[in-house]
Amino acid sequence: MPSIVSALAGVRILDLTRVVAGPYATGLLAELGARVVKVEQPEIGDEVRRLPDQVRGVSLTFNDLNRNKEGITLDLRHPTGRALLLELLPHFDVLAENFAAGRMREWGLDWPVIRAANPRIVFASLSGYGQDGPHSARPSYDNTSQAVSGLMALTGESDGPPTKAGTNLADYVGGLFLAVAILAALRGRDASGHGARIDLSNQDALFTMLDSYPLWYRASGKEATRNGNRHRVAAPFGSFLARDGWVVLSAGSRGLLRRALRMIGREALLDEPDFRERVKRFTARDELNGLFEEFVATRTRAELERCCAEHRVGYAPVQTVAELSRDPQLAHRQMFREVAHPDGQEPIPTRGLAIRIEEMPAQIRTRAPMLGEHTGSVLAELLGVDEAALAELRARGAV
Question: Which of 118, 213, 217, 398 is the Cys-Cys partner for 81 at CB 3.0 to 4.6 Å?
Answer without folding.
Answer: 398
